[in-house]
Amino acid sequence: MFEWPLYGRIAQYKVRAVLEALETASQSTKSPVLALTGKLTIEHVLPQTWQAHWPLPVEVKGDPITEQKAIARREVMLNTLGNLTLITGSFNSSLQNAAWSVKRPELLKYAKLNLTQFFHGSEADDWNEGTIQKRTEHLFKLLLQIWPDSSKVA
Prior knowledge:
Layout: H1 12-25, E1 40-44, H2 64-78, E2 84-88, H3 89-95, H4 100-110, H5 129-146
Antiparallel strand pairs: 1-2
């Protein structure tokens, strides 16, 4: 489940339904409940066209095989649950393929859903494959609370 490409494998409305269920499950009596509107879109935190603003680490570029493995891993992690969130369509359009140093402050400023709270923590200071996996694990634990039988998928 942690490296299962959710986006692109199942219909977008189903991916959105999973993200909405996670948002609903993460709501607390301590925070205001925000209504989920039909205007929310799926955002890839690491963009689908990442090459320009999200370069691979320098240490993997010296060896072509290591670099190809890093590209393959990034392409897998790109569409996993941990790299996806919900934001408005206009916000999504404004972020597009921006680097994390540009995208994160915007997410912190404008994204109000509980799904985006992970981005406030120090574990999200850098957005990479490892961070995506950590967020996937976090969301999967929440998913297990919603659908206890979903552990059979992992």
